[in-house]
Every structure is written in C-alpha cells, then in structure tokens.
Amino acid sequence: MQVGVLGAGQLGRMLALAGYPLGLRFCFLDPAEGSPANALAEQVVAPWDDAQALTRLSECDVVTFEFENVPVETVEMLATRTRVCPSAGALAVARDRLHEKTAFQELGIPTAKFAAVGDEPSLRAALSRIGLPAVLKTRCFGYDGKGQRVLRTATDADEAWRELGGQPLLLEAFVPFSRELSLIAVRGRSGDTRFYPLVENEHREGILHLTRAPARNLDPAQQARAEEHARRLLERLDYVGALALELFDVDGTLHANEIAPRVHNSGHWTIEGAQTSQFENHLRAICGLPLGSASAKGPTAMLNCVGRLPPAARVLAIAGAHLHDYGKLPRARRKVGHVTLCGDSPADLEAKIAEALTLLEE
Ligand code: AMP
Predict the structure, then answer these.
(1) Domain spanning 113-173: which CATH class is it, in words?
(2) Per-residue pLDDT tens for 49-105?
(3) Considering the domain 2-84, what is its CATH architecture?
(4) Farthest CA pair distance, the chain
(5) 288-303 pLDDT per residue, tens
(6) Nearest CA to ligand 1 atom 1
(7) Fold classification of 179-360 (topology level)
(8) Is the Cβ atom of 145 under 6 angstroms away from ligand 1?
(9) Cα-to-centroid distance, 257 and ligand 1 (Å)
(10) Sign of dihedral through CA atoms 73, 291, 193, 262?
C-alpha cells in the first residue's frame, strides 16, 4: 500500500519511520527541497497546485497531510481521485480559528469568548464585547505563537491592528489558565476511537518546549471530559486519523484552544512512551487497519530541540533517553529534533528532565 503525504517535514518523516514496519511505502509532496522526509522516501518538489504532482499523489492508495496550511482545494481535488484522510472538510474547519471555535461552541465544548474581526470597527466592537486582556490572532496560518498578540491595553490593540490588520482575524478573551494540556485522539475508518492520556505542555517564546506524559496529577474525570470533547469533534468532522486537541486547564475546567488535524508535536512522546505511537495509529486509521492501544508505558517526557541539537553522546548517556534528529539545518527558532525521556517513576523522570535541560541549554 502506498501512502501519499502532503508536507515532508519532520511529522512526515516520523510517519514514514512508523509505516515501514507495516510494509507501507510513501510519496511526499512539498514545495521545499531537501525536506526531512526526503531522506526516507520519494519527494515530489512542486507547488501545492501542480497538476503533474497531484497526478503522482493521486496514484497513492490513500493521501494524508502533515501540515494544515495545505490549500483545501488541493485536498478536495485529490479526494476526487483517491481516498484522502482526514477529509478536506475536516481540514477546512481546523485550519481556520473562527470555524474551529464555532465548532467548539456548537458542540458544547467550553472555549474562550471570541469574535471575528475584519476591520477596525469590528475590532472595536469585539473589544467592547470581550474586554481586556484579550488575544488577537490571525484566523489562518498561525503557528508557534506567530500571528498573534496579547492585548492588555487600548494601545496594544492599536499596535496589534497595525501589525496584523488587513487579514481575517479573531479576537479571543485571555484565558487565565493554570496549565496547558493536549489530547491526541485517533479515529479509524470504521469509527473506532483511541485516546492517549492528557499531556501537559510548556511553551517558550510560543514554541512547545516540554511535554510531560501523562500530565502530572491527572484526574480521571478530567481525562474523561477531554475524551468526550474529542469524541464529539471526531464525530462531527467524520474524522479519520489522528487529531490533537489543545486545551487550557482553568482550575480543573477544560477550555478548548484549538485543534490540529494531524499528528502533533505534543504526541512525539508516544514513539517510545506509548503502546502504539501516534504516527502508527494515524497510519492504521487511514489504511483501515485496527487501531493500537494508546496507553502510556510509564512516565515520559519530550523536550524539543529548538535552533540546534544537544551533544548526542551526552543526551544518550541519560538512562531512558532517545534522540530524534530531523536532519534539518540548524536555524534560530527552528525545531531540529527532540529528546524523549522514559522515567521509572515521576521523580526519576523529573531528575532526567533536569539533566537533559542542562544539555539543551548549554
Ligand atoms: P495558539 O497558536 O492558539 O496555540 O496559541 C499559542 C499560545 O498562546 C498558547 O499555547 C497559549 O500559551 C497562548 N494563548 C493562545 N490563546 C490564548 C488565550 N485565549 N488566552 C491565554 N493564552 C493564550
């Protein structure tokens, strides 16, 4: 079976690494040359709407994406020729914050108050309805904290408008969360589902820095609520594949922030830390295979390597550490790899995190 993947970044690379044991073959499409997945499989280097490239991708048995900023038209076009999972409809909801927030609201999933902003009068109207502090975000193409500004004063609002105005925006109430959590959910072609444990995410300068899996002091009732939210989304979107639901924990209540219609950085720990990785389960789902267990093997952490990789020999000297090098050129703010740490106990894991952090920060 051949899997076509739109996007050839590290997520695509890890999909291929998970798919080879299953006998899957891969073909990637990405406009950027020399992408991380390129070392592992055929990569068509062409724009997203290139007719020849899309013909090549449509020869695959199933096509998926590892990047949500692929044009919906590309996915729609491929869907007329081959199976595409998740669907173009699911992508269209997940790549636009207004549609995503509207879906949360319709499904009864708590989320911050929000309003669409198209021009200055609508920004003023949104500010008077939502109040300050608030967050102004681009509806599409935002990632790693890009395309958003926290507004604490009226002056911030003017500045943010000068920076972000001229494109469709969303104003959201600022959520005073105690921690950020995420849930990776997977739904198969026959509607079967698996949910990984909630994980706890720390960001630095808008980029995921550290994931602890499962989240510390995880309340089973909170896990059940998160699964219920994700289940509603999966069913509403008739979703096939892995989906990440990012949540804010506000004194035990979960507020949905956003969804990613793909495997997700906060699920990288599953490669070594769960019975079945998010990458394998995504492939199982889109290929119509039975899903694997999503339970954690033990306390696990994932540390992103941003800008540069730590010294491999010293990281690997930590018991239970695994290093993933994406084969990317080092550059400021670029995710070039990650480290997974498997602990024997929560305390052992914390000691390993502290040790690995010193290497990453040297
Ligand atoms: P996002 O691109 O929506 O995931 O936002 C990036 C980060 O900004 C989140 O991980 C939060 O740390 C922060 N953030 C986003 N939206 C809000 C909000 N409404 N209230 C408070 N913090 C937010």
Answers:
(1) alpha beta
(2) 999 999 999 999 999 999 999 999 999 999 999 999 999 999 999 999 999 999 999
(3) 3-Layer(aba) Sandwich (3.40)
(4) 58
(5) 999 999 999 999 999 9
(6) 145
(7) D-amino Acid Aminotransferase; Chain A, domain 1 (3.30.470)
(8) yes
(9) 7
(10) negative
